[in-house]
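Predict structure. Chain length: 241.
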Amino acid sequence: MKDARKDNRSYYDDFAAWYEKERHHGYHALLDRLQVEIAADFCRDREVLEIGCGTGMILKEIAPLARHARGVDISPGMLQKARERGLDVVEGSATALPFADGSFDAAYSFKVLAHVEDIRTAMAEVDRVLRPGGVAALEFYNKRSIRYAIKRFKRPNKVSERTNDHEVYTRYDSLDDVKSYLPAGLRVEGVRGVRVFTPFAQAHLVPGVRHVLSTAERWARDQPLTAGFGGFLVVLVRKQG
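Prediction complete.
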């Protein structure tokens, strides 16, 4: 990227106070709900890890379903808010998860992996902490999407008084790119697509349009012909062995 970048910890600490500013309604609430539903499909009654749990917006929904759910995040500022929710979280990096081998039956990561530069190491860590037969939902930013086309020309968004969203490392991937990052122990079992039709977040502020888009996004997320065009490409993998 041409913009000056902050390290991820500093960026997300700066973002922490603003992170939930728009997350409880409209477009961002829909994204969270679509992602929660993906994770809920395989997290029930299992030992679960969220990689990049942030303030716990998704983890708080998954924790009551799981046998036990833990979260890890690089940002102390984000984790403070997650702990205030009573969630079991720990500071750590996606490239060096602070857990023993084979600790979890399931894992998921949303809105995070696109900002991890050493993505192959992060994928190896997912493989390491999963038990044989364990599953994970891993979300990437998709090159083949309306969101990517718009982002290429969009002005930076402020995430605090001092920081904008161009100051963090961000990568966009195709499904083939994602497959190339996976270690031999992880096999792709499916794809889900979040934000297939939404041209820009503000469209969800229009009452009639919001309903139509919400219905269309829930349908498109799980359809083989449309999921691959989601702005957020969720790749479902299973650990072999």
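Summary: DSSP finds nine helices and eight strands in the chain.
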